[in-house]
Amino acid sequence: MKLCVPKNIEFGNVVYRFPTAARRLGILLMVWVWAISQSASGQASAGPASELVEKFHNVLIGVMKKGGNISVQQRYEILSPKVRKTFNLPFMIRIVSGAAWRSANDNDKKALLDAFTKMSVSTYASRFDDYSGQKFETLAESQGPKKSVLVRTRIVSPGDTPVKLTYVVRKFADKWRVIDVILAGGISELALRHSEYRAILKKDGPLELAATLSKKSDQILGK
């Protein structure tokens, strides 16, 4: 059965439009954001999805506390297995790449996944590089669409306004994995990556995107 996806979604007086290649992703993200806005009621008790996120947060705090005593490359090496275990990176790059992934050969897919993984870990290694009393708090866990679980958290920094983060978590076989992070204001990491990668994929294909991501990662890591 062919799934018919509308070009526009209307909420109240606002119409959201998605380009053809992004419609499924856009609609899914809109549902996630709507579910987050409704999650204040009907909250579920914390479970394995929250435990997954909290373990990752503990690792981030541990890396931050090392601060200037370790290099960004050392932070990368510590975080790499933790990021891979927390996030379903193959699923994420497949969703972000859309049609380009479906038409790519196995070698191109591997190159793109490797580069996406490297970029994801490098980003965390560069962002969480200092500690000044920050802490993560888990606020709530609730059921989301598509058999997902929404884990609402926030980063609390002394003297600053807390920053909210909602993790979209799904079970794959017997393992829970994060598949998206919704930032404050309803900004989806998947949507940002899709927007960023789309032009390169359309013009030059997966290998060029892989090369671009790898180059950016090397710059972050000081290589």
Report on this model:
This protein is α+β, with helices and mostly antiparallel strands and 223 residues long. The chain has one domain: Nuclear Transport Factor 2, Chain: A. Helix content is 52%, strand content 21%. It contains 8 helices and 7 strands; from the N terminus they run ββααααααβββββαα. The chain has helices at residues 23-38, 48-66, 72-86, 89-97, 99-103, 106-127, 189-204, 206-220, and strands at 8-11, 14-17, 135-143, 148-156, 163-172, 175-183, 187-188. Strands 3-4-5-6-7 form a 5-stranded antiparallel sheet, with helices on both faces. A hairpin with a 2-residue loop joins strand 1 and strand 2. Helix 7 (189-204) crosses helix 8. The protein starts with 7 loop residues before the first strand and ends with a helix.
In short:
It contains eight helices and seven strands, in the order ββααααααβββββαα. With about 220 residues, it is α+β, with helices and mostly antiparallel strands.
CA radius of gyration: 18 Å
Strand content: 15-25%
CATH superfamily: Tgt2/MlaC
Q: What kind of sheet is the major sheet?
A: 5 strands, antiparallel
CATH class assignment: Alpha Beta
Query: What is the molecular shape?
Result: globular
CATH T-level topology: Nuclear Transport Factor 2, Chain: A
User: Topology as H/E string?
Assistant: EEHHHHHHEEEEEHH
Low-confidence stretches: 1-23, 40-44
Question: How many strands?
Answer: 7
Instruction: Decide which structural class fits the backbone.
Output: alpha+beta
Count of helix runs: 8
Q: What is the rounded distance between the termini? A: 49 Å
Helix content: 40-55%
Strand order of the largest sheet: 3-4-5-6-7
Provide the CATH architecture: Roll
